[in-house]
Amino acid sequence: MPWLAPGETIEWFWECEKHLLGQVRNVLTAPFEPLGEVPESDRKKLKLPLPSTVVSEGRFLDDEWVYDPTLCGRVVAQDPGALAVRFADHLVAGRGKTLLCLTERRLAAVYVADSDNHVLWWQADRSALRALPEVHLGHDLGRPRYFQAFVFTDGSVLEMDQAVGRKTQITAPT
Question: Which top-rank group of organisms is this from (predicted)?
Fold first, then answer.
């Protein structure tokens, strides 16, 4: 993967093949659409069903959005230029072909043009992350879901469903 620095290791990656829920400036959007500039994808628009009207109209309680099968994560921020929003922008712009990759050095949104061509679209140094907690969302008595939360130093948060995440140890040659 040419976007990796020599010796850099991907520890986790998440596939964004579904929609994201957006909560930016206290405005709910489902599905989330990019708010900032993003590269053009050569992929057709995702032919996914849209989130349920319960979710898109905000008629859910607390974190019940996690049960909508069309969603793989959520972005929460007050500023549309926040780091979590910029990552979400690039994840959805890739139309199902963007990976969120966590290395020991950075978090990166990587577009998969084809099996041999991975293009770095957006990145932030790992120091831009305040915390990386695993969060439990949904009902304890129902089907709880586990999400990886990326809590950025600017206060924004990107949560990705652990069901679409993979732990790995892919290291670039030195």
Answer: Bacteria
